Amino acid sequence: YTLPETGKITLKVYDMLGRRVKTLIDGLEGAGFKSIRWNATDEFNRPVGSGIYLYQIRAGNFIQSHKMLLIK
């Protein structure tokens, strides 16, 4: 993802029932291009199963969600 300016960012992964699986980012991030890798674990570092997940990124007033497919 690319941030045009420094700001508070949250990036969370959810299952298809809307339950939060993992919070990947929750804090201030500087402007610029960023990337993050999810290691397919939940909040307690337990592995999650293959399937479809949703991720949501929030930056200021911007909110965007997308599906992703996890294949093990």
From the alpha carbons, calculate the radius of gyration and give it in angstroms. 13 Å
Q: Which regions have little confidence, pLDDT < 50, spanning 5+ residues?
A: none
Per DSSP, the total helix count is 0
**Biggest β-sheet strands, sense, barrel:** 4 strands, antiparallel
Q: Determine the N-to-C terminus distance.
A: 24 Å
The helix-strand sequence is EEEEEE
**Hey, roughly how much beta strand do the residues contain?**
over 45%
What's the mean pLDDT score?
Answer: 95
Q: Decide which structural class fits the backbone.
A: mainly beta
Dominant shape: elongated
Q: Into which percent range does the helicity of residues fall?
A: under 10%
What does this 3D model show about the protein?
There is one protein chain. By secondary structure, the chain is mainly β. The protein has no helices and six strands. The protein has strands at residues 2-3, 7-14, 20-29, 32-33, 51-59, 62-70. The mean pLDDT is 95.
Quick gist of this model?
This protein is 0% helix and 56% strand. The protein is mainly β and 72 residues long.
Features:
mainly beta, 0% helix, 72 residues
